Amino acid sequence: MLFRTSIVAALLCLTHSLHAAEPAALTLFENVRIFDGKTDALSGPMNVLIRGNTIDIISKDPIPIDGGSTANVIAGGGRTLMPGLIDAHWHAMLVRPTPASLLTDDVGYLNLVAGAEATDTLMRGFTTVRDVGGPSFGLKRAIDEGIVVGPRIFPSGAIITVTSGHGDFRNANELPRVIGAPLSRQERTGASMVADSPDEVRVRVREQLLKGASHIKLTAGGGVASPNSPLDASTFTEAELHAAVEAAENWGTYVTVHAYTPISIQRAIAAGVKCIEHGHLMDEETAKLIGERGIWLSTQAFPDEMADAFPPGSQERAKAFTVFAGTDKTIQLAKKYKLKTAWGTDILFSQRLAQRQGELLVKFTRWYTPAETLVMATGTNAELLAMSGKRNPYPGKLGVVEGGSLADLLLVDGDPIADIKLLTDPARNLVVIMKDGKIYKNTLQQTKDGR
User: Cβ(258)–Cβ(166) under 8 Å?
Assistant: First the structure.
C-alpha cells in the first residue's frame, strides 16, 4: 500500500512539473493607443505584451517574442486599449428576476438566469463587478473555474438587515420572528439575513466571511425596493453597526452600508464603516463629514426607467423618484468636498436596463468629464476593491494598464475619451474583450507570430 501511494505521489509530482514547465501564453497588441485608467489622455502608438494573465511589457518600440515561442498577435490599427470596466455596485443574482420570482422561483433556475446575465455583463466590457448583496458565491466559483463565462465577482454575500429593514422581504405570516426557529426563504437562499442585536450581527457577518465574502454589506437605512422599509427609517443601532465593523476588521476587510439619509450615514461613520452606498438624500454637513473622515461614497445616477420595476401608484415607485431627485445634489456635494467617489449602477429586476450598463456610465458625464468618468470606472473603482486586503479573491492590480497589472483589457474601435458614447454600443465598438489574459471576444483578424 505504501509503495502504491509513493508511485501515485511521484506521478502527481511529475504531472505538476510538466505543467509548470509549459510557457505562459503570449498575446501581443500592436499599434494601440492606451488609456491607462489613471490619466486624462491617450498615449501615442504603443505595443503591449501579455504573458499569461498579466501585462508583461509596454513599449513604443516593437516587442520581440521569446525565441521558439508563439504569440497571438492582434493588430490594433491605432485603436484604444483600456482597462476592463468595473461596476462598483452590482447584484449578480438580482438583475433579471422580478421581485416575485426571487421569492418563489426554483433556486437552480435563478442561478442559471444569473449565469446567462454574467456572460452578457462581460460582453458589455465589464470585467469586474463588486457584488453588494445576494447569494453570488456559487456563481463566482463557476466563473472562476471556467464553467460559466462572466466577470470577476467581489462578493459581499447576503445583505444583512434588521427586522423591517431594507432587504427584509418576509410576509406578515412569517412573523413574529423566533430566535432559533427555521429561517425564512430569503435567509435560506442567502439573499439577506436578519440580525437584531450586536451578537446576531457578528454571527451573520462571520457566516459571510466563512463563505468567502470580500467585504460586508449592511442596510443602515430604509430602501426603495423593500415595501415595509421607509426611506427615512434608521435601522441598525451604532452598537450593531460597530459589531459588524469589528468582525470584518478582524478578517482584514471592511463594511459598506446602504444609506440615503444624514442620520443613517453619520451613525454608520461613527461605527467605523468605510464606505457609503448611494447617499442620495445626504446634506452638506454629512458630505463634509464623509470627506473629513476619508470615507468612500459609492453612488449611482439612476435612470427614471428603474422605477418601472414597481407598479404604478406603489410606495416603492414613489420612493424611487424621491431618491432620483437627490442625485444631482449628492454628486455636486461629492465634487465640492472631493469625496473618494466610486461609480456603479445598482441595476435590479431588469434585463433590458442591464443592457444599457454602458449608457449609465456615460450618464455620469453630466457632472464629470469623459476622462474623469472613465478613470472612476477603472482605476478609482479598483482602489475601492483593494480595500478588501487579503480577502481580495483576485490578488493583483486591476483597473489600470501598466506593467505587472492583471490583463483585463478592452480594445475599443475609437477614442472613448473623445467619444465616450462608444461604450453604449459594446457589440459594435468593443472589438476585443480580455479577462485574466484570456480573450473572450475578438472580431479582428488574428495572426500567429513566432518571431
Answer: yes
Contact 424, 56 (CB under 8 A): no
Handedness of CA 303, 305, 310, 313 (dihedral sign): positive
Q: Kindly report the average pLDDT of the chain as a whole number.
A: 91
Location of C-alpha cell 441598525: 236
Q: Is the predicted pLDDT of residue 122 greater than 50, yes or no?
A: yes
Q: How far apart are the first and last CA of the chain?
A: 50
Alpha helices in 337-433 (DSSP H): 351-354, 357-362, 370-375, 381-385, 426-429
- CA 66/CA 238 separation, integer angstroms: 59
Structure confidence by residue, pLDDT tens digits, 73-83 = 999 999 999 99
359 three-class SS: helix
Choose between 46 and 450: higher pLDDT.
46
Task: With CA atoms as reference, report the closest residue to 397 among 28, 26, 43, 54.
Answer: 54
**83 - beta bridge partners?**
409
Class of domain 21-84+400-449 (CATH, top level): mainly beta
**What is residue 307's predicted lDDT score, i.e. its pLDDT?**
87
The three cell numbers of residue 281 are 438624500
d(C-alpha 195, C-alpha 343), whole Å: 29
- Is the separation of the CB atoms in 139 and 114 below 8 Å? yes
Reply yes or no: is the peptide bond before residue 426 cis, omega within 30 of 0: no
Point out which residues pair with 59 in neighbouring strands.
47
What average pLDDT does this structure show over 382-408? 97
- Could you confirm whether domain 85-367 is CATH 3.40.309.10? no
Do you know the residue count of the chain? 451
- Count of Cβ atoms closer than 10 Å to residue 437 Cβ: 19
- For residue 111, CA distances in Å to 102, 104, 149, 380 come to 11, 13, 13, 30
> What pLDDT score was predicted for residue 100?
83
Alpha-carbon distance of 257 to 264, in angstroms, equals: 9
281-327, pLDDT tens digit by residue? 999 999 999 999 999 999 999 988 888 888 898 888 999 999 999 99
DSSP H or E segment with residue 139: helix 137-144
Q: Where are the beta strands (DSSP E) in 191-295?
A: 192-194, 216-219, 255-259, 275-278
Domain locations in the chain as residue ranges: 21-84+400-449, 85-367
CB atoms within 10 A of CB 358: 24
Residue 85's H or E segment, with its range, is strand 85-90
Q: How far apart are CA 290 and CA 379, in angstroms?
A: 21
* Entry pTM: 0.92
The dihedral over CA atoms of 336, 339, 342, 343, expressed in degrees to the nearest 10, equals: -20
Count the helices and strands in the chain (H runs, E runs): 16, 19
